[in-house]
Amino acid sequence: MIRACALSELDDKKPLAVEVGDVAIVLVRDGDEVHALRDECSHASLSLSEGEVTRKGIECWLHGSCFDLRTGQPSSPPATEPVDVYPVRVDGDEVFVDPTTTLN
């Protein structure tokens, strides 16, 4: 696990782009949970961190594809492929991500 950011840097339901190792990751705080996904839409290779978090997940700003925060599965077109989801551990005010392991 590699430190990604401080928990205090994450606003609820507001995406944050971070580099963990050499992997671009978007972090999303959802209440007490923190989710880490590859910061790249599987449809158009755009940064998901520039989109919004909705009840469906994180939405790509260009074409509107949404990805589930837990599974990375697309919940709306045009994306048909999931994005990678990474393990997260919160220790105090520190958020750690393992960019070498995917959960999907």
From TrEMBL:
Residues 2-97 form the Rieske domain. Keywords: 2Fe-2S, Dioxygenase, Iron, Iron-sulfur, Metal-binding, Oxidoreductase. CDD domains: Rieske_RO_ferredoxin. The keyword Phosphoprotein does not apply. It comes from the Bacteria. GO terms for molecular function: 2 iron, 2 sulfur cluster binding; dioxygenase activity; metal ion binding; monooxygenase activity; oxidoreductase activity, acting on paired donors, with incorporation or reduction of molecular oxygen. This is 3-phenylpropionate/trans-cinnamate dioxygenase ferredoxin subunit. It comes from Actinocrispum wychmicini.
